[in-house]
Specification:
Elements: E1 31-33, E2 39-42, E3 61-64, E4 69-71, E5 76-86, E6 90-94, E7 105-115, H1 118-124, E8 126-128, E9 133-135, E10 143-149, E11 155-157, E12 162-172, H2 181-186
Antiparallel strand pairs: 1-6, 2-5, 3-12, 4-11, 5-10, 6-7, 7-9, 7-12, 8-10
Length: about 200
């Protein structure tokens, strides 16, 4: 049985709705994923700077500076955006019949990356220093961009300029299991790379 269609998102937040797996992806006859969205809050005075996409299928939402600021040549500068987001984990419901079950299993956590804008980096040598800067699902504070100006000239940022992009991702829940070296060496994988690194596969 397929889940009922979800309600239409609030049009006031249409630019920031983040929907995954709709229509729901049926991974097997016994499971399906719920639709998720990200709630957005803009600080007072930044309401007109909601992150936007140039195209519907763009990977990222453009983050905009909420104040005028100079990025000195060769220095690091923190740029504020006024953006706060509330992300949610991905839940999977299991049922032998495919019907909705009351107790979901959390399979993925959401995160967001603050990434550089390619045009800004190429044309002006300005980019997000720690790109991608990781925003954890539990973080509710303001999203800022740590900008570095690698050029020899100061770069002027005006309020509303697109300075970075925000990309939403799902991360599978992973538990680290410590083993001995002997146990580690006995683990079978589907690759023959082993410990090869630093150019081991060729030029």
């Amino acid at each position: 049985m397929q889940p009922e269609k979800q309600p239409v998102p609030d049009p006031d937040f249409k630019d920031m709705q983040f929907v995954t797996d709709w229509p729901p992806v049926v991974e097997s006859p016994v499971s399906f994923h719920e639709v998720e969205s990200v709630q957005l809050y803009m600080e007072e005075g930044s309401e007109d700077l909601i992150p936007t996409q140039a195209h519907d299928d763009d990977a990222g939402y453009d983050l905009k500076a909420n104040h005028d600021i100079t990025l000195p040549a060769g220095e690091v500068t923190l740029v504020h955006t006024g953006v706060h987001v509330c992300m949610h984990h991905k839940e999977t419901y299991f049922s032998e019949s495919g019907d909705r079950m009351p107790a979901p299993i959390i399979t993925h956590h959401m995160l967001a990356d603050v990434r550089s804008r390619s045009g800004l980096a190429l044309k002006h040598g300005v980019f997000v220093l720690n790109s991608p800067g990781t925003i954890d699902q539990s973080y509710r504070g303001e999203i800022c961009a740590i900008m570095f100006n690698a050029s020899k000239q100061d770069y002027e940022v005006k309020r509303g300029d697109r300075i970075a992009q925000l990309v939403f991702l799902f991360k599978p829940i992973v538990k680290l299991q410590q083993v001995t070296k002997e146990e580690f060496d006995q683990i079978k994988t589907d690759t023959d790379r082993d410990a090869g690194a630093f150019g081991s596969t060729g030029k």
